[in-house]
Amino acid sequence: MSTQKDLPAALSHAFEKAIYRVHSPKGDMDVRIGQLNRPLNQLLEQENSRGAAILTACNPGAQICSRAFNDAVQESLLRDLQKLDLRWWPAVNLDPKGRWPDEPSLLVLDISLQQARWQARLFKQLAFVYIPLNGKPQLHQVQQRLPVSDQAASNSPVPF
Question: What superkingdom heads the lineage (predicted)?
Answer without folding.
Answer: Bacteria
